[in-house]
């Protein structure tokens, strides 16, 4: 049985809404082109996937008017104005997503049919996501460089975070009432493409929950974007003035859509990358998205570089289809092996998520439930939104939370947990398809996580709060690793996604510890004002073993942060791209999206993707400038 607490649903709400809407933004179609134009032009660059990273890179590469760029995107431009409202953050539209579920999850008691979240729309995840734009902790990125990726520390990445994002200061009244703090040095200047801001309303219980966190021993931080651990406020990807989604389409595509050197082909899927006999990438094959495989396949050519930005799900799939991947898998699918690269589709990570639910018997009014239970409050909120774009309807998924370090979650036994991690025989816990390079790379990742788990500057569990009694508990640094592999009977069908959630027994144990922490939080003097009573998982579950068993039954494998499936790491450690994001074993082919992350950061992934893509664009420009 899948028990879903409200906050979890809030993060991962799946509503099948079909809205009728006018083509208000249809001028956006101006620079979209027909397939015959794409196939008859030789471009400087081809970008495979016009999602979040793809649009960033397309924008930057076309700053030079002498360079031409083709972006091929499976999805369409979404012209529904409501998709830019804060409410879209919690209402994921099925027509903007791929349709697939994961393989049965042995670590989740064999549950199957669990939704895999991947965007299928121009702007990708940034067009449909929860607009929560937090960053990982410095330690998250510093440890990328320790995995053998020079140039990828927090200090080196900070300029790219800043190149993408600026902060619009919150209303003085709300920031004072809620003690919202920030540090402007974390953000870029006012003209960066993405604006982040705070909504004009917070529920009063948020103050109580914040105070309760402090009483439970969590340290507030002045600016999460610089110190993403313990307790901090974070803005949403929302413009302050218009209160609209700030995303790759509004920030990176729309302002440059009339550049003559930028072509966007929507509704087409890329099948394979083409190579010459020197294994240099020279072009792509593509066809209309819903046509049968092989029907009307066309090609487009690129002189300088082809950049894969098809997301964690399809970047590895396209590589595998093109003969770059684990040789055994390719042979099974009858694909000639161009490069035996075991890391393609391996190293899959996401934030698995458990939950708790408490009923507040003396809740403060209004609270988030008032929107459904109190007609007067709802009418006031709707009116305020309709006339002024302020009030409760300007909230996305919330703006404050705790990133709880393991020493706080497991005061008595965090050292023994760390010792257990270090003593595990990793070969027994990794997918059987991993070769010795992947095992060697994983051991280094494992040691980094183990050592970071001893520190207070590294969030083990994310616990956001927004005035509700329910909490989601996301596992920020999973030890389990999954796979994405071609469907060998139909390589054009969706690939097989195996998250391998909780296969490493430490993963559910860390969430179990956080359930106990939630109980401690609810019992603080501040929280006692609300008279919380545990509803789920249930006060009868007390031991770690009981809680772990319940989590295997109820937790979800994903918070839509799938990543790391074409990781940047040395090839001997199972990497797919080097520190310049070039695919091993070929030339003229790079990757610039979420799949290049080697170790998932303890944050939602959107802001990190902006930083990676900005960095990727600069690397690509540099290496192809001279010719
Ligand atoms: C429902 C949802 C909610 C999320 N919520 C948050 C959040 O609140 N905060 C946060 O920080 N992160 C969130 N994320 C995660 C974040 O948005 C993603 O990690 C990020 O957008 C990924 O960017 P990307 O460029 O790597 O991939 P994407 O943005 O997914 O882009 C990949 C693009 O490639 C296209 N494509 C794929 N295959 C092909 C092909 N064969 N041919 C042509 N095109 C192809 C896809 O259609 C897609 O547009 C969420 C993600 C989802 C899906
Ligand atoms: C997923 O299914 C919906 C219908 O439920 C459809 O509208 C959408 O196009 C499908 N997604 C893709 C990428 O095919
Ligand atoms: C991870 O990065 C932090 C720096 O932010 C460092 O202190 C720590 O030692 C790193 N971990 C390992 C195992 O090197
Ligand atoms: C306000 O935030 C700061 C820094 O985040 C913290 O030190 C302080 O304790 C907070 N004050 C209150 C009243 O919560
Ligand atoms: C309903 O909301 C109104 C307006 O916010 C408030 O005054 C009233 O007390 C609420 N009623 C209940 C029963 O919560
Ligand atoms: C309308 O919005 C403005 C700022 O956007 C705010 O100052 C004002 O208080 C709002 N009006 C109401 C009635 O809330
Ligand atoms: C680890 O597990 C593998 C696979 O089961 C086994 O072959 C190997 O001997 C084990 N190594 C150790 C040190 O126990
Ligand atoms: C592989 O694709 C075929 C054809 O679309 C489909 O019938 C089959 O179920 C898929 N296999 C898996 C394991 O999903």
Automatic annotation (TrEMBL):
Keyword Flavoprotein applies: yes
Binding residues annotated for FAD, in chain numbering: 121, 270
InterPro entries: FAD/NAD-bd_sf, GMC_OxRdtase, GMC_OxRdtase_N, GMC_OxRtase_C
The Glucose-methanol-choline oxidoreductase C-terminal domain, residue ranges: 478-613
GO molecular function: flavin adenine dinucleotide binding; oxidoreductase activity, acting on CH-OH group of donors
Cofactors required: FAD
Gene Ontology biological process terms, A to Z: secondary metabolite biosynthetic process
Catalytic-site annotation from UniProt: 561, 604
A Pfam family hit: GMC_oxred_C
All copies of domain Glucose-methanol-choline oxidoreductase N-terminal, residue ranges: 43-353
Highest taxon of source: Eukaryota
UniProt similarity note: Belongs to the GMC oxidoreductase family.
Keywords: FAD, Flavoprotein, Signal
Gene3D superfamilies listed in its UniProt record: FAD/NAD(P)-binding domain, Glucose Oxidase, domain 3
Protein name in the entry: Alcohol oxidase
Position of the signal peptide: 1-20
């Amino acid at each position: 049985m899948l028990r879903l607490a409200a906050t979890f649903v809030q993060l991962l709400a799946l509503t099948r809404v079909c809205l009728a809407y006018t083509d208000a933004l249809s001028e956006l179609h101006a620079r979209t082109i027909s397939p015959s134009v794409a196939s008859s032009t030789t471009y400087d660059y081809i970008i495979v996937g016009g999602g979040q990273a793809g649009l960033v890179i397309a924008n930057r590469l076309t700053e030079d008017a002498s360079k031409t760029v083709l972006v091929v995107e499976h999805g369409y431009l979404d012209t529904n104005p409501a998709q830019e409202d804060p409410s879209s953050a919690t209402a994921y539209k099925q027509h903007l997503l791929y349709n697939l579920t994961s393989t049965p999850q042995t670590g989740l008691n064999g549950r199957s049919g669990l939704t895999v979240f991947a965007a299928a729309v121009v702007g990708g995840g940034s067009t449909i996501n929860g607009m929560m734009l937090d960053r990982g902790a410095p330690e998250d990125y510093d440890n990328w460089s320790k995995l053998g990726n020079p140039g990828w520390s927090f200090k080196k990445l900070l300029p790219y975070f800043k190149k993408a994002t600026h902060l619009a200061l919150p209303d003085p009244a709300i920031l004072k009432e809620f003690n919202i703090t920030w540090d402007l040095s974390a953000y870029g200047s006012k003209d960066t493409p993405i604006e982040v801001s705070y909504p004009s309303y917070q529920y009063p219980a948020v103050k109580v929950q914040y105070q309760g966190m402090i009483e439970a021993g969590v340290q507030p931080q002045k600016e999460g974007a610089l110190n993403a651990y313990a307790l901090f406020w974070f803005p949403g990807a929302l413009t302050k003035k218009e209160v609209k989604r700030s995303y790759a389409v509004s920030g990176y595509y729309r302002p440059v859509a009339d550049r003559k050197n930028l072509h966007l082909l929507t509704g087409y899927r890329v099948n394979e990358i083409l190579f010459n006999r020197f294994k240099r990438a020279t072009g792509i094959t593509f066809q209309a998205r819903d046509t049968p495989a092989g029907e009307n396949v066309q090609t487009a050519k690129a002189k300088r570089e082809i950049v894969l930005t098809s997301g964690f799900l399809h970047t590895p799939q396209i590589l595998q289809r093109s003969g770059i991947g684990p040789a055994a898998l390719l042979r099974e699918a009858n694909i000639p092996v161009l490069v035996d690269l075991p890391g393609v589709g391996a190293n899959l990570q996401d934030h698995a998520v458990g939950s708790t639910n408490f009923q507040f018997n003396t809740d403060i009014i209004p609270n988030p439930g008032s929107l459904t239970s109190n007609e007067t409050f709802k009418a006031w909120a709707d009116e305020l939104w309709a006339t002024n774009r302020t009030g409760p309807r300007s909230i996305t998924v919330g703006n404050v939370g705790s990133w709880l370090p393991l020493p706080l979650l497991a005061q008595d036994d965090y050292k023994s947990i760390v010792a257990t991690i270090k003593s595990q025989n990793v070969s027994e816990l990794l997918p059987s398809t991993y070769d010795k390079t992947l095992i060697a790379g994983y051991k280094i990742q494992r040691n980094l996580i183990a050592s970071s788990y001893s520190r207070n500057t590294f969030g083990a569990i994310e616990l956001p709060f927004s005035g509700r009694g329910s909490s989601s508990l996301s596992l920020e640094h999973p030890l389990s690793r999954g796979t994405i592999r071609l469907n060998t009977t139909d390589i054009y069908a969706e690939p097989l996604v195996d998250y391998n959630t909780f296969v490493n027994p430490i993963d559910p144990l860390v969430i179990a510890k956080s359930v106990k922490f939630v109980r401690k939080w609810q019992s603080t003097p501040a929280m006692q004002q609300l008279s919380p009573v545990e509803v789920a998982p249930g006060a009868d579950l007390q031991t770690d073993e009981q809680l772990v068993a319940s989590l295997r039954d109820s937790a979800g494998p994903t918070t839509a942060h799938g990543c790391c499936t074409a990781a940047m790491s040395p090839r001997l450690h199972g990497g797919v791209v080097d520190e310049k994001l070039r695919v091993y074993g070929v030339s003229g082919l790079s990757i610039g999206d979420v799949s290049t992350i080697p170790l998932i950061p303890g944050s939602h992934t959107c802001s990190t993707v902006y930083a990676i893509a900005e960095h990727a664009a600069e690397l690509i420009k540099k290496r192809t400038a001279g010719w």
